[in-house]
Amino acid sequence: MAPPASPPFAAVAHGNNDSDDCQDRCCGSAATVDASSSKEAQVVDSPDTDCEKPSCASRAVTKPAASSCSKEVDDVQDDCCGNNIQSDPKTAAKLEALGCLCRALLALGQESCCTTRERSYVERKRSSAASLRSCTSIDSCCASGAIKSACSAKAHLRSKKVCRPPSPKAGADGCADSCCAQSSAPSIAGYCADSLCTDDYPPDVVAFKKAAPEVIRNNADLERGMSGREHVILSISGMTCTGCETKLKRTLATVDAVKNLKTSLVLARAEFDLDLGVDSADGVIKHLERTTEFKCEKITSQGASIDIFAPGSPQDFIFQSWPEGVTDIRIVDNKTVHVEFDAEVIGARDLVERGWGNPIKLAPPHADPTLETGSKHVRNFGLMTLLSAFLTVPVLVMSWAPLPENEIAYGLASLALATIVQVAIAGPFYPKALKSLIFSRIIEMDLLIVLSTSAAYIFSVVSFGYLVSHHPLSTGEYFETSSLLVTLIMVGRYVSALARQKAVESISIRTLQVSNANIVDSNGQEREIDSRLLQYGDIFKVAPDSRVPTDGTVISGSSELDESMITGESVVIEKHPGSPVIAGSINRSGALNVRLTRLPGDNTISKIAGMVDEAKLSKPKIQHIADRVASYFVPVVLALTIITFVSWIVVGIAVRKQSAPEATIQAVTYAITVLIVSCPCAIGLAVPMVIVIASGVAAERGVIFKSADSIEVAYKTSHVVFDKTGTLTEGKLSVAKEYYLISQPSTTQSLLLGLVGGIKHPVSAAVAAHLKDNGISPEPVSNPKTLTGKGVEATVAGKVLRAGNSRWLGLSSHPKVEFILAQGFTAFCFTVDGQLVATFGLQDSVRPDARETISQLQTSGISVHVLSGDDDGAVRAVTSQLGIYDGNVRSRCTPKDKQDYVQYLLDTPSFNASKKHKKPVVLFCGDGTNDSVALAQATIGVHMNEGTDVAKSAADVVLMSPRLTGVLTAIAISKKAMLRIAFNFCWSFVYNVFAILLGSGALVKARIPPEFAGLGELASVLPVIAAAVLLRWGLKGGQ
């Protein structure tokens, strides 16, 4: 919604002397109007000016007067807006509503003499964020603040100066702005600020003005003028099976503006990038709803936003002036509006309390948007199922209970109830099935339901007609069959949807976000607020035994925090001033005062949830196989139904010697059963249900899978490659030895500290910390340059300073360096103009879980490798402790060396236990930026994360805690997930084979009655969901 520049202004009174100045309309039309009914005046940000006799254009200027100008008003013969243009009656209303010919041309995407008014940063930002559909009017070109070039165009503007504020660019001549030096196409999109000068505007013009947004919205040229991309997330209501997801994908794939499409049946969600130059999000939603019968809701995922209760009408609230920083407002319901804003311009609390003058009431918080739509769908489905059962039970009683004989009365009541069930309950299946067939060319499960229930109902109506005509059929009516069939289908779908929803909710990370926070003001006073109102600059208090509301840094107090729900690590972590805290962690003992660093919508919980959702939306390769099988399933079932129908007619007539009508009736019952009892939903859910649960379970254990492909292949890992520093070791280096080769080491120490003081590499940081601890002050060093895998260099007073590893500096054979390397220390050298002046020996400690992790990997038949940029002695000292084969260890590696080694492993065939060739799967685990190339090169890149910044890594898997057992957890979850996927496929195949055999009567002495065939979906889907959910309890201990 593009914001108006300011609220409408009151009409000018008829008796005002200033009205004489407005008899010539600033952008005239053919009609002559009184000042009181003058064209709406544009409200703009213009220079502070004052006119003793303001014109209608300047009368609406919002800012106070600061200077004066003289009054000169003459008759306007004509101007660029065409004062004497005669318009066709059919377009007169349009031109009248648009205000002048300039604006009419602009609305139609044509050029005009009007130029663009310079807009403020906030206006430009609003314009870029808003959609054309939200404009309520077109900028009047008749306003002050125009640029000089227009006002100087006197050759074709013969009108004399009117009393208008001069433009700041007009120069010394004080040339008044031309009335048409104001508006241009961009302002139509972003700056709709017109207001009527009178309440007595002609009704037809007012009506057209209300319709003006539609004129703009449907204008192809204007739409084509928009550019850029928008990432759209849609929550879809109405998806029940894999056919629905296929229909969704095919429908969106036909929209040219949609790129990078991702869909999920389990999450009932679609994500895609939208080309705004081709179509809008609203247009895509309308197309999708029209062609699929799904209900779509757009989810906001970017920027800060809140829901508030609009005082009065939400429509009126939107069209008043917006506070600075607000980028969009849209209506949620008849009381609530959704406000999006730039949190760096205005905070949520300031916006609610002071943004609109008076405090605004915050609307109740919504649940996780990815779950809310699903919950609503389940509730609606449950209500429809209850209604169906309520209508079906009397039909069953009249059909099966030993009641007094009155067949026609019972049949009539059953007909009425069955008709309601068929129309009200089964009715929505019809448009879905037909639209899938027509628009998406898909034969889905809904079509089977429509065919089977329709056949049962129509047969029952025909049978009842025979009964009324006193020629009853031998089979009687089947009203209980059609009604019970629909009810059991609804029960099956409801239970399946409920089970899916509960499974997704059980692993929702966003539920860790707390709803309230205690902020501390500048006076030290505490007050509790909704956590949605936290804003930058806030200090909040975390009381004992409470959760941290959002990410921050401790400024006072000390305590211990349990971060296990985020990191998967059960030990508590001490926090003191300067320590970071993570949203969702639990404070144990002491109270903490924390300065906010991230808003709730952008904290660690939100980042992790976003990455987990990304994994849920992605599809492993095996999913494409399942989708292909499911796409053929329904056509195959239809073919089997026809075969069953024909076969039983032949058997009935030729073998059982039945009459043709009797054989046909018998064949119909078997055909109906085959249509309904078969179910492709289990095949469609076999993979995504497991992926959703597996990614959630992994996140609970501190392992974030960023794609489903990683879950699919991790269990096949044949090589695990570790970085050393910060991965196998703690990464907390300490200086064990130091040597200075000059007589005055203090100068050298100051220069070295100035060189490496701002470097974050673990070795440089350890040396800098050591020097600071010894009281060394840094010497200023400008523009130090970091060379990845080598060191850092700079030039000071003509001297070249270099600090880094001995190999880069060519000092590996220096006696002092050799002595350090021989002891297994990491060597760090400092040179001035190529001369060694200092060298340090650093040591690190091995992580406590490294030995256990590597031992388990080797026991599993996985080859373990170590690549490090460190010196050979330091690397061998660590690998010898961990029992890693020397042939798999490489030291002094550059990032390119690491990439080449990983590629070598990928190119080298490996063999499994049965000596069969298999494709190598390489998992690389690292923690630094110098590992990024190897992370990308490996089959699976694992980034060991410390802190709250989890989204920057380009790895496939992120370990939320610095524990190597996370690698074992990732492999174990992958293995368990793939076993359950295999079970689901087997179950789907076995169920459908036996269900079709029983339904078709192939097993002559055993069959499924048609009225109970609706239980098929329940029987097929529940085991698939159960197998996925049980994954939560299928891992041992930390795994």
Please provide a written account of the structure.
The protein is of the alpha+beta class and 1039 residues long. It is elongated, with a radius of gyration of 37 Å. Helix 12 (369-400) runs antiparallel to helix 16 (479-506), helix 20 packs antiparallel against helix 33 and helix 22 packs parallel to helix 34. The strands form nine sheets. It has a seven-stranded mixed β-sheet, with helices on both faces. It is 42% helix and 15% strand. The two termini are 48 Å apart.
In short:
By secondary structure, this protein is of the alpha+beta class. It is built from 34 helices and 35 strands.
Top keywords for this entry?
34 helices, alpha+beta, 1039 residues, 35 strands, disordered N terminus, seven-stranded mixed beta sheet
Give the strand content. 15-25%
Q: Tell me the number of helical segments per DSSP (H or I, 4 or more residues long).
A: 34
Q: Termini, distance in Å?
A: 48 Å
Which strands sit side by side, in order, in the main sheet?
A: 21-35-34-33-22-29-30
Please state the average pLDDT score.
Answer: 75
The chain-level structural class is: alpha+beta
